[in-house]
Structure formats: structure tokens, C-alpha cells
């Protein structure tokens, strides 16, 4: 195993300092050659990760013709943003208003000032484009079962679909679990009480009647992906109760399927940008996830499209502050991110110089950075006092990512409701 001092020296040799987007030009040019650029984050609540990803995304859109951003968010909420930035009929007159669609915990992940700034830019950029050239913004996560079911019923009602009654029956079946879908998993797994028959009946009928939905291309994609969410979410919550690792796999496979549907909407040559946590975009085979039979978006997209069509960029920090909660569903707060543990990837990056830097992994340095090293990961729940018990993922960095962006000291996101201090 590589010694910390040797790793620090290797970082000094291969890392490049950056203070602005122009300093990242070598990374940008490399990334732009791929079909999909996967931009990570080591936490869901760090301002710099969002702002840097936004600047990279704007450059890829403006200079290289990338056509959409897909994020680790709910499809229905993100589609409201998509409608706003594309100039469809919406009740929103400002970017921050469109972000009000993010009202399910953890809302701060997308309802924040950093995303509001990006949304404003996307709206302004799209205003000068024709309909087919407008940039899209989509959520490809699996959690929005209730919201997606509501969207399906509403859409089928609006077009007088022959599938409306079947959709209402499926909706009514899920309705008792609307606020606690994990209880649906308990009911389905242990008591044999589920909504699978109603759901299969609906989706089969919608497929048979698919010609009804070919009136508006994006509306068609909207109902297709909401249907995909409902189908995969039912499976996710069912499996989550008995097998956490397999539920993770269902979620990440869903995100790849949703990404493919979005990309297909833009055509065979489409190029897209994906924003997700490092644990999703960094190849699972380069971590201990593989030992538990887990896969992720980084691995699945490399396998599906080819390694040369995927460019994955990991992000990390040495210390700072972050938005997170003590437990799932609790109010968020601004928390301290302590100095990285000795011997970790982030520790060595700091020891190599207390400044922002990036590394492009290549044939010259692949073996140097392919030792297994602890790499920090913070989710929407966090307790820095127990960070050593589970917040470091053993990783082979040059295998997990194509490049890495390091910000020495970071600040917490700025949620739009601003009740944090």
C-alpha cells in the first residue's frame, strides 16, 4: 500500500492548481469528448460543488453543445424547472419560484440559491434558442412514487385517456402509504398486500394505447418516465425492507434507464451532463461496494456506453461546513466538516498544498493513484463526531474517476428558505 508521504508527493507532481474555470480547461476539453459527463460531489450540501458543477455545465452547453442536465432529483419536481427554462406555460415568473416544486425532504438539495442561479442562466440561454435546441433539466431518481402517480392521473385526465380509470385504481391502492412509502414495503414484503396487479394492469394498458400519447414529444416522455418511476419505485420500496443492497441497485439501474430515455428524446448523438453524489457516479467496482454485490451509475454507464463515452469527475474537500440533518426527515442545519482523517485521500490532497486543485487520471499516473485509500462521503444525514465509523469509502481513485476536483475549504449550501445558522 502506498505511504501517505509518497501519495502526497505524487499529488504534488500530478495535480494542477485552479482558481477559476479557465484553469480547468484541460479537464473540460477531455470531458467534452465523452457522450456523458458525470459530475460528482462528496456531500449533498456543499456550495462549491454546486457552483463549480454549474460553471462546468454552462461551458459544456455553450462551447460543446451538450443538450441536457440530469440530476439526482425527483422527475416531477425537476420537470417543473424544465418547463420553466424552456418557456412552456407555467405559473412561474422567476427561477426561485420554479424551485418551489422541490417540497419533499431533503428539499435543500435543489431548492437553493446555487441552483436558482443556474436556473436563471438556463432560462436566459434557452430564450434565444428554437424549441428543439433548448437545454433540458431532468431528475432521474426513483423516490417520487406518489408524485409521479399523481402526474400520470392528471395527464391521463387532461387528454381523456382510456387508461384513466386503471390509473385511478392504482393511485387509490398506493394512497394509504403516500407519506410513508417504507410502510408499503413492509406491507408488500411481509403481509402480501401490494399494488402490483393494479400497476401492471395500468402499465400494460398504457403500452397498448401508446399511440394516444404521441401528441406532444416532451409530454410523452414525461408520462413514460413517470410510469418508469412508479414501476421501479414499487420494486424499490418492496425490496428495501429486506435487502438494502439490492434496493440500491434498483435505484441506480433506474437512474441509468431514465437517463437513456431522456437522451433518446434528444437523439442518437445527444450529449448530457449528470449531477449525482460521488457514490453514484464513481465506478462501484473501484470501491468496497463491489464486494457487497452493489452497482452504480458510474459502472453501469461505462458498461452500457463504453468507457470512452463516460467522463466521471469526483469532488472532495478537506474541511468546511455543510448542510445536512442528524436523521432522515429531521430539520437541516449547517454542520462542521472537520479536517479529513489522517491517511485519507482528502488528507493527502491537503498535505500537498492547502489550495484548490485537480488531477487528471491517465496512463502515466493510473497505478500511482490506484491504491485503496479512504475517501470521504457525506450524505443528507451526517454526524461528524462519528465520521470515522462510516463516512470514508475505500477507493481506488484513478479507477473510480477520470478526474478529481478538490476544494480545500468549502462552505454550506444556501437553502432558499434560509432558516439555517
Give an overview in words:
By secondary structure, this protein is α/β, with parallel strands linked by helices. It folds into 2 domains: 4-141 and 267-410, EreA/ChaN-like  fold (3-Layer(aba) Sandwich), CATH 3.40.1660; 145-251, no CATH class. It contains 16 helices and 11 strands. Strands 1, 2, 3, 4, 5, 6, 7, 8 and 11 form a 9-stranded mixed sheet that branches. The chain has a two-stranded antiparallel sheet with strand order 9-10. Helix 3 packs parallel to helix 6, helix 7 (145-158) packs antiparallel against helix 8 and helix 8 (164-174) runs antiparallel to helix 10 (196-208). The chain is globular. The model has no long low-confidence stretch (mean pLDDT 93).
Short description:
The chain is α/β, with parallel strands linked by helices.
What's the structural blueprint in terms of helices and strands?
Blueprint: H1 4-14, E1 16-17, H2 25-31, E2 36-39, H3 47-64, E3 68-71, H4 75-85, H5 95-98, H6 113-127, E4 136-139, H7 145-158, H8 164-174, H9 181-190, H10 196-208, H11 217-240, H12 244-266, E5 272-275, H13 278-281, H14 297-305, E6 310-324, E7 333-337, H15 345-351, E8 357-360, E9 372-376, E10 392-396, H16 397-400, E11 403-410
Parallel strand pairs: 2-5, 2-6, 3-4, 3-5, 6-11
Antiparallel strand pairs: 1-8, 6-7, 8-11, 9-10
Helix pairs in contact: 1-15, 3-6, 7-8, 7-11, 8-10, 9-11, 10-11, 11-12
Amino acid at each position: 500500500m502506498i505511504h501517505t508521504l509518497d501519495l502526497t508527493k505524487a499529488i504534488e507532481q500530478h495535480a494542477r492548481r485552479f482558481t477559476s474555470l479557465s484553469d480547468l480547461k484541460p479537464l473540460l476539453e477531455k470531458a467534452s469528448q465523452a457522450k456523458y459527463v458525470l459530475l460528482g460531489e462528496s456531500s449533498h450540501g456543499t456550495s462549491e460543488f454546486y457552483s463549480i458543477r454549474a460553471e462546468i455545465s454552462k461551458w459544456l452547453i455553450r462551447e460543446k453543445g451538450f443538450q441536457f442536465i440530469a440530476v439526482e432529483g425527483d422527475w416531477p419536481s425537476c420537470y417543473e424547472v424544465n418547463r420553466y427554462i424552456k418557456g412552456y406555460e407555467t405559473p412561474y415568473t422567476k427561477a426561485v419560484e420554479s424551485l418551489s416544486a422541490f417540497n419533499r425532504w431533503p428539499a435543500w438539495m435543489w431548492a437553493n440559491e446555487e441552483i436558482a442561479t443556474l436556473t436563471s442562466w438556463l432560462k436566459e440561454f434557452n430564450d434565444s434558442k428554437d424549441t428543439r435546441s433548448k437545454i433540458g433539466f431532468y431528475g432521474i431518481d426513483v423516490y417520487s412514487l406518489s408524485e409521479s402517480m399523481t402526474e400520470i392521473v392528471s395527464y391521463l385526465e387532461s387528454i381523456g385517456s382510456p387508461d384513466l380509470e386503471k390509473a385511478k385504481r392504482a393511485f387509490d391502492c398506493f394512497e394509504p402509504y403516500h407519506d410513508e412509502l417504507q410502510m408499503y414495503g413492509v406491507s408488500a414484503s411481509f403481509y402480501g398486500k401490494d399494488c402490483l396487479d393494479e400497476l401492471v394492469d395500468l402499465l400494460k394498458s398504457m403500452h397498448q394505447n401508446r399511440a394516444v400519447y404521441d401528441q406532444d414529444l416532451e409530454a410523452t416522455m414525461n408520462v413514460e418516465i413517470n410510469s418508469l418511476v412508479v414501476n421501479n419505485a414499487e420494486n424499490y420500496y418492496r425490496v428495501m425492507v429486506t435487502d438494502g443492497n439490492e434496493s440500491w441497485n434498483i435505484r441506480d439501474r433506474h437512474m441509468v434507464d431514465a437517463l437513456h430515455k431522456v437522451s433518446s428524446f434528444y437523439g442518437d448523438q445527444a450529449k448530457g451532463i449528470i449531477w449525482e453524489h460521488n457514490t453514484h457516479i464513481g465506478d462501484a467496482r473501484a470501491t468496497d461496494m463491489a464486494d457487497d454485490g452493489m452497482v452504480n451509475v458510474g459502472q453501469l454507464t461505462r458498461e452500457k456506453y463504453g468507457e470512452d463515452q463516460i467522463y466521471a469527475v469526483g469532488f472532495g474537500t478537506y474541511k468546511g461546513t455543510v448542510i445536512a440533518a442528524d436523521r432522515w426527515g429531521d430539520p437541516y442545519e449547517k454542520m462542521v466538516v472537520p479536517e479529513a482523517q489522517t491517511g485519507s485521500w482528502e488528507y493527502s490532497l491537503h498535505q500537498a498544498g492547502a489550495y484548490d486543485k485537480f488531477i487528471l487520471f491517465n496512463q502515466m499516473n493510473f497505478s500511482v493513484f490506484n491504491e485503496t485509500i479512504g475517501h470521504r462521503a457525506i450524505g443528507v444525514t451526517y454526524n461528524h463526531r462519528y465520521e470515522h465509523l462510516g463516512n470514508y469509502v475505500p477507493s481506488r481513485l484513478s479507477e473510480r474517476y477520470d478526474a478529481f476536483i478538490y476544494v480545500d475549504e468549502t462552505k454550506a449550501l444556501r437553502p432558499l428558505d434560509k432558516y439555517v445558522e
